[in-house]
Here is the input.
Amino acid sequence: MTITITAFERSPDGGKGLARDTRVRWALEEAGRPYEVRLVSFKAMKEPAHLALHPFGQIPTYEEGDLALFETGAIVFHIAQGYAGLLPDDANARARAITWMFAALNTVEPPILDLMVAKILEGDKPWSKDRLPLVMDRIRDRLKPLSARLGSADWLDGAFSAGDLMIVSVLLRLRMSGILDEFPNLAAYVARGEARPAYQRAFADQLAVNTGKPPLS
Ligand code: GTB
Here is the structure.
């Protein structure tokens, strides 16, 4: 059955891979599932056809036969099921990988999103300069224990999993801030994620959309 996801017609990041379709593309590439992409404009995202797929009028969405999903956590979980390379067969290891997926979305990503809001949406407010250090400290409060848990390991819990895919995806947003460099093992962890061939393909494909250049063959 054909898998179709949606992505920005033109991502505001110009192809840095920060929009959330990249993590879905990455999971599909890891699982070796071919997929098609339907590009949507900001206007189309708020129209009934797209709202039927995504109640909040956002990207990405995922369609496969009769199934339509939204929310990257649910989409990546769905893709990862049945593929041991993303969710191990061992029940406990699988539950732990899923735990890291939740941690990525519920614990690590929120302060990182706050930084985007502080910088981009509230950057012109008079209090923005005072708020920024507080936001950065809240991010450090997450990175410190994450760094301690990772230690010198390659991945968070043995082999690479959907948990790592989600954690790396949310940490990637921090690259520009420089804060990752305070935690060299996390910076190396993110680089390991980015070096995976599946990530490289996902990144190249979204870049091609945003620059009009063909993806790497
Ligand atoms: N919780 C949802 C999920 O995980 O799927 C969040 C989905 C979401 O926020 N989608 C964003 C969207 O559709 C795109 S990824 N926004 C349009 C809208 O809400 O109207 C967020 C995003 C946007 C732009 C950049 N960027 O340019 O750097 C990065 C990330």
User: Anything to note?
Assistant: Residues 11-13, 18-20, 45, 57-59, 71-72 surround S-(P-nitrobenzyl)glutathione (CB under 6 Å).
